[in-house]
From TrEMBL:
It comes from Candidatus Onthocola gallistercoris. This is DUF134 domain-containing protein. It comes from the Bacteria. Residues 124-211 form the Dinitrogenase iron-molybdenum cofactor biosynthesis domain. Signal peptide: none annotated. It holds the Pfam family Nitro_FeMo-Co.
Length: 251
């Protein structure tokens, strides 16, 4: 008996599900090229977000060889659509939305029923922009894709090295934050906490976007600094990564 394949993790569903070539004379209901949701996700992460295949594999909870195969298939389909025209549809596959139940081939997307905790670096209602210097997290408990409870917890002065353990003690599954250093990323990965860095704005709104699969974030966001006791400068602004303290820099 064949072993069932593991779901690939997808963290943003496509906004557009069907594309028609400008010169296409294909009648409605004609043959279409079908791009699966996980094929779309590899294109989004590698070609759009700039991830390498190893990082993409980690994000999608799959092996690198599996991602390479999916990505190659997706690129071939995309090239065929560009050259031949016709229709390209994005649907189906074998995947799970971040924090939600696995979708089997042929199933409709349903809200997940998994209990999950989401933490956000927090200050004055906003996503605080430097993980290692956050003084509080807002932790959201979710069920069926909805927030059922939330609380703000003080880090009690915990620094970079201790924050991953701090979050693990609260059974956190997902962290949404602004800037974060490479060492902290590794600590979170070891703790089994999924990271969504480069987010900014209202904390409640970012969690709502995450649960809908529409969170805007940058997995390549990284904060480079020397952790001196007197503070640090990051991204050209004091007190925050990619922006001013407690907020995010808008272009």
């Amino acid at each position: 008996m064949a072993r069932p394949s593991k779901c690939r993790r997808v963290c943003r569903m496509p906004k557009c599900r069907e594309f028609v070539g400008y010169n296409s004379h294909m009648p409605d209901g004609g043959d279409s090229l079908l791009l699966t949701v996980e094929e779309y996700e590899t294109l989004r992460l590698i070609d759009y977000a700039g991830m390498n295949q190893e990082a993409c594999a980690s994000q999608m909870n799959a092996s690198r060889t599996t991602i390479q195969s999916i990505y190659t298939s997706a690129r071939r389909k995309l090239a065929r659509f560009i050259v031949e025209g016709g229709r390209l549809r994005i649907e189906g596959g074998h995947f799970e939305i971040c924090g939600q139940a696995c979708i089997q081939p042929g199933q409709r997307h349903l809200k997940g029923d998994r209990h999950m905790k989401i933490a956000v670096t927090y200050e004055n209602g906003q996503v605080f922009q430097h993980f290692g210097h956050t003084q509080a997290f807002k932790i959201y408990t979710t069920q069926d894709g909805k927030v059922t409870a939330s609380e703000v917890v003080d880090t009690n002065g915990s620094g970079h090295g201790a924050l991953a353990g701090f979050l693990k003690a609260f059974d956190v599954d997902v962290l949404i934050c602004g800037g974060i250093g490479a060492g902290a990323k590794n600590a979170l990965a070891e703790a089994g906490i999924r990271l969504y860095a480069g987010a900014c704005g209202d904390a409640d709104a970012q969690v709502a976007s995450f649960l809908e699969g529409n969170l805007t974030y940058d997995p390549n966001t990284e904060c480079h600094h020397h952790d001196h006791e007197g503070g640090h400068s990051c991204g050209g602004h004091e007190g925050g990564c990619g922006g001013h303290s407690g907020g995010c820099h808008q272009a």
